[in-house]
Amino acid sequence: MISQELIKQWAIEQGVQEKQWSDHLVKSRKLSQNIFQYLMAHGIVSEQVVLEFISAQEELPIVNLKSIRFDDEILKKIPKRVIEQYRVFPVGVLGKLMTLATSNPFDLQVVDDVRNVTDCEVVIVLASPKQIKEFIDEKYSESTNQLKEFVAADDEGIEYVKGGDEGQVLQSKSSSDEAPVVRMINLILDQALKLRASDIHFEPFEKDFRVRYRIDGALRSSFSHAKDMYGAIVARVKIMSQLNITEKRVPQDGRFGMVFGKDRRIDFRVSILPTYFGEKVVMRILDKGGLKGSLADIGLSSKPTEALSKAIAVPYGMVLVTGPTGSGKSTTLYSMLNTLNTPDRNLMTIEDPVEYQVEGITQTQAKPEVGLTFASGLRSLLRQSPDIVLVGEIRDKETADIAVKAALTGHLVFSTLHTNSAAGAMTRLIDMGVEPFLIASSVIAVAAQRLIRKICPHCKKSTEITEDVYRRLHLKPEEWVGVKAYKGDGCEKCNGTGYWGRMAVIEVLAMNPELQGLVIQRKSSDVVHATAVRYGMETLFQNALGYFRSGQTTLDEVLRIATAE
After folding, report:
1. Is the pTM of this model over 0.70?
2. What whole-number distance in Å separates Cα of residue 39 and Cα of residue 499?
3. Which domains, and CATH codes, for the chain?
4. pLDDT tens, 85-105?
C-alpha cells in the first residue's frame, strides 16, 4: 500500500494545493472513495497521471481497453452484478488465469469475489475508470444485447432479392419473415442512428468480424461475431448500394437511402475496400435532417460568424474552408450556400460526392472515370451563368487556376483545402503553382475548422481549475478568478464518455492590404498567421478556449484540437 505521505507529496507536485489536501481526504471518505478515485472523478488530477503513479508504485501494467479486441464469451464468466458493483472489466482468460482491468487495485475484495465466481486466479491490470465505464455501458446496453441475441440465432436460409431501380429508397422494417442478414443490417443501422453515429465500420479479421461506430469523432465497438455470415453482409450492402456483388478485387463506392419511421430520410455513402481478410465496409451517415440552415444556425461563436458573414456578402472573390477530413467543412459550406440561396441568384456546385441535396441549388456529381473532374466540371459550370459556385475541393493546379480566375471575373467561389491553419491555405495554393498576386487578388477569407466535443448535459458537473491546467494552457490565474471548469462524469445518455455532440471551432483569416502584400512576397504561413492575429483574428486555440471558459467543453478537448499559445 502506498503511504499517505508519499501520495500527498505526489499530489502537491501535480498542482494540488497543500491547504486543500485535508479537505480532499475528508470529502473522499464521505463518498466512500479512496483519494485516487476522488482526484480522478473531480478532474483534480488527470486519469492518466494517477494511473501512471499507481503503476510505478504498485508495479502494475496499464492497458488501453480501446486497443484490445474482446471475446464476448469472457463476459459470460463473470456475473453482470460483479462487473457493475466493482467497476471492473475482464480483459482475457488463459486457462485458469483471468486478467482483470480496474482503476482501483486497492480493493482486495474484488479479487476474492471474482475468484469465487469464476474459479480462476486473478491478475490485476490498470485501466482508465472512464474507459471501464464506457465498455460496461457498451457491452450491456439494450441495443447491443439485441444485436448479440440476433447474431447468436440460426443464420441458415439466407436469401437475397437481386436487382432494384437506380436510386431506390428502402423502407427500414423489422419483420419475422425477413432474411436474417437483412434484419441484422437494419438493426445495425437503427442502433447507429440512436447512438448519433456519423460512420459505421464493418471490419473483417481472420476468424471473426467487428462492427464499430464513430460517435462524436471517436470509434466505439458495438460487437464482434464469427466470420461465417460476413460475406452475406457485404453482399447485402452491395445490393443496397447498386454495386457489383461478384467483384471483390477492387474498391467500390456506392450510396443508398433508407426511410426510418414515418418520414426520416437518411442517406448512406458506402466505401468498400479489399483487405487481407476480406472486404472492409465503411458507411458515412448523411442525415438531411441534421443539415443546418443558414450560417447563423450552425452554432459558431459570434466573432467567426461575423467574419464569415462579412466575407460572403462580397459579390465576387473566393472563400476557402480548410481542415482535416471530418472536421465539418461541408456543413459550414452548405450553411454559407443556404444563407445566399435566394430566387434572384444562380447557385451551382461540383462535388465528389454530393453529400446533401439542397432545394434551389444546381448540384453536379464529379465523375473522374468519365472525364468529369473538378476542373472540367467547373469550366462547364461557368458557362451556365452562375452567381455563386461551390467546388468540392481544390486538389490540383488546374482546378485552382480556374477557381481563382472565376473569382476574379465576377463570381463568388467557395471551396475547401486540406491545410492545418487558415494561413496555410496561402502557401498551399502557391505550392500548387498559383501565382501569389492572383491569390492575393482573389481570396477574400479563409476559415480553418475543427470539431470539438461538448460536455454531456446529463452528467455535467463542476471541477477545479488546477495549477496544472494553468500551466498547460499558459494562462494567468488572476484572469480566471470566478470561472468554473466542468466535465462530464459519464452516464447512460453519453455511454460513459462524458461528451454529447460536437461543435465547430474555427478561425477566420480575413484578407487586408498588409496580408495581401505578405502573400505576394511569399512570406511563410507563420508570418501571415501572426499578422492576422495582430489584426484581430481569433485563433483556433482562442476560439476553443472560449468554449472551455463558458463551460461547454473540457481542457482535454481544447488541447486535442489546438496547441496552446
Report:
1. no
2. 20
3. 4-127 (3.30.300.160), 141-289 (3.30.450.90), 295-450+504-539 (3.40.50.300)
4. 888 888 888 778 888 899 999
